[in-house]
Write a structure and sequence with these properties.
elongated, 153 residues
């Protein structure tokens, strides 16, 4: 046998040995690969979502309008003061999230009004515009028209 034949034979032998061990390994664990694994269980909420009443949202907006310093000295103390005043049965961070959501809604409605108004500028009475904004966000109390507290932050 020549040197080239010996090298070729050793190469093929090593290839078959590696293949043998790979196949043996795969057969050993093939039962794990063929069984269907159930998807992980979905995380369940400990508490259901808070359904905010319109009066609760109005009380938040009115509190924001009354207070001079928004979320001062800290947001936690600010919203705990609100909860103490209104006696709502929620946590301070839920109120913080609601105010954050209200700010986003206000910005969206304000941006829409600043744009072309989707072709509603030529309407004289403004009822269509009010209806559109009412769909986009919750209306502020009537006493707050003109100086909405969520606009500055």
């Amino acid at each position: 046998m020549s040197g080239k034949n010996i090298i070729a034979t050793l190469f093929y032998l090593s290839f078959y040995i590696k293949t043998y061990y790979v196949v043996k390994f795969l057969r050993k664990f093939s039962t794990n690969f063929n069984t269907e694994v159930a998807p992980p269980a979905k995380r369940k909420r400990q508490k259901p979502n808070k359904k905010w009443k319109e009066s609760e949202v109005h009380s938040i907006i009115e509190f924001l309008m009354e207070e001079a310093d928004f979320e001062a000295p800290t947001a936690q103390l600010f919203y705990k003061r609100f909860l103490h005043k209104t006696q709502l049965d929620v946590s301070w961070d839920l109120v913080w999230w609601k105010v954050r959501h209200l700010k986003a809604q206000y910005r969206k409605a304000n941006d829409w009004l600043a744009s072309t108004g989707a072709g509603l500028q030529d309407e004289g009475d403004g009822r269509i515009i009010e209806a559109k904004i009412a769909k986009m966000s919750i209306r502020p109390p009537k006493s707050s028209v003109g100086n909405h507290p969520l606009a500055d932050n």
